[in-house]
Amino acid sequence: MKRNGFVTLVAVAFLGLLMVLLLLEVQGYAQQQHAYNDLIKHYSQAISALPHK
Question: DSSP letter string over the chain?
Fold first, then answer.
């Protein structure tokens, strides 16, 4: 019965690690989206500032 508890503990620890990795991935994705939005905004403003023919 002791081994059952150990396997459960290892499984819970592994799932916790996966959750932390998932949260870090989601946070990184959000930062990347923010950076792309800033880049698009910058280039949109730069294009709008060009003189029209």
Answer: -HHHHHHHHHHHHHHHHHHHHHHHHHHHHHHHHHHHHHHHHHHHHHHHHSPP-
